[in-house]
C-alpha cells in the first residue's frame, strides 16, 4: 500500500474496486473513509501518499459521472465526502490542491443544488477562498462565517445541517472535530447549547483520569469547544450552562490535553485576559478572580501559578470591586471591647495563624501586586484607608511573610497617593485620602527592615504636602530614625529617599512655624542636629551632596550659620 504511485498498484486497486465494491456509492464511501482517516492511528498503513491516491481516484470518478444526476447525493450533508475532505484540507501540504480538485468536480455535478440539505454553498466558498486558506488554515472558519453573513437564511440552514455531523456519534470523532473547527466563528445559541453537554462529559472523563493524558482526538474536540470562551463573542458565558462549563474548566489545572505538539490543561484554554475583559462590568468577574486567587495560592505547580498571575495582572478593576474582594477575607478582626482586642492580639503573637488566614493574606498580597501595576484605577483614594487598616494588623504579626506584605502595602499606598495627586486637587485629596500618618511613622519605629523604612518615608514625603500638621507632629521621630538608620546606609536608593524627605518635610516645617521664629529655630536646630550627629557615619562621598541640599532647603541666606555653628560644636 505504500507505493501507491506505481502503475501496477493503481491497476490492482482499480480491479479490486470494480470487482469487490461494485457501485459508485460504495466506492465513494470507501474513498471517503481513507480521506477522513485519522493519521494519529499508526497501526493502519494509511499515509499522505495513499490519501493523495484516494483524492485523485475520487476526482476521476466524479469527473466521469458529473454529467448525470446520479451523483447529486454526494453533496448531501449527511453523506461523508464533503466532511471527509475537510481533513486533508486542514492537514495542508500537497493534499490541498488535490482536495480542491475533488471539490471542483463536486461543484460541477448536475442537480446537486436541488437537494434540500446540499453543501454546494460551502464548496463554492472554500473554492473561492482557497488561496487564503492555503496560506493560513485559520482562514477556513472565517470563510464559513462570511458565507453565513452573506446568505442569512440559506447560510443558517446549511450550518444547522452541517452541525448535525458534529453531534452525530456515528461520525468519526476526528471528522466531527474538523467540522467543528470550520464552524469556530459560528456562535449561535443553538450550537452552543449542544456543545455544553459534550464539553461536560469530556471534563467528567478528564476528572476520572486523575492526571493521565486524555485521548488525542477527544483533546482536539474539547479544545475546539473551550476556545469559544476566548473568542471575540462572549455568548458562551451568557447562556445557561456555559458559565458553569467555564468555571469547571477554570478549576482543572492538570495538563492532560494533547493538542498538536503541546500538553495543555482545560484551565489554560479558558483563562485569557479577553475573557476577563468581557466580564469587567459583571459580578461574575469577582467569582472568577476568587477562583484564580485560590488556585494560585493552593497550587503546587509553579507553571500554573505563573500563568494565572500573568493573566491576573492584565485585569482592570475598580476600587469598589477590590474592596468587595477584600471584604470576603478574614484578616481584620472585629472586637466588642478593648480588652478582647488586647487578648486576641497577644494570642496571635504567641500562636501561628490558621491556614485560612494565611490563604487570605496571600490573596491580599496578590491583589496588592495587581493594584501596583494598574495605572487606570478609578477612585484610588477609596483604597488608602483599608490599606492602613491592613498595615495595622500586619504590624502585630511576627513572620517574614507579614514583613514582605507590609513592604508591598507601603509601596501600593505610595502608588495610590501618586494617582490621587494626578486625579484630585489639593482640597479633594485631603478630603478623600484617609491616610493614617501616625501608623506610617509607627511602621518605621517598629521595624528593622530598611525596605520598610524607605517605603514609609516616601509616603511621608508625599503626605507632608497635604497633611503637614500630622507629619510635623512626628517630625523628630522621622528624622531621629533617619539619623540612626538610613543615614548609615551607603546606597543610592536610601539617599534618594533622604533627599525626598528633606525636600518635602523641611519646607513644610518652615511654612508651618514661620509665625513663631523662636519655635521654628528650635525645631530646625533639632532636625539639623540629627544630620550633624550622623556625620561620622556618613560615607565621605555622600557628605557634601547631603549637606548642600540641607543648607539649600533651609535657606542659605537665613540658616547657613546654623549648620556652621553646629559643626563647630562637634
Describe this structure in words.
With 570 residues, the protein is an all-alpha fold. The protein folds into 4 domains: 1-186, no CATH class; 191-282, no CATH class; 316-435; 453-570. Helices cover 69% and strands 1% of the residues. α6 (120-128) crosses α8. β1 (257-259) and β2 form a beta hairpin. Strands 1-2 form a two-stranded antiparallel sheet. It has helices spanning 7-21, 24-35, 48-65, 80-91, 95-107, 120-128, 130-135, 139-150, 152-167, 173-182, 189-209, 216-226, 235-238, 242-250, 266-270, 273-278, 284-298, 302-312, 319-326, 338-350, 355-372, 384-395, 400-423, 426-432, 437-446, 450-463, 468-473, 475-484, 492-512, 517-533, 540-554, 556-569; strands spanning 257-259, 262-264. The chain is elongated. InterPro entries: HEAT_Utp10/HEAT1, UTP10. It is found in: Nucleus, Nucleolus. Residues 524-565 form the Utp10/HEAT1 HEAT-repeats domain. This is HEAT repeat-containing protein 1.
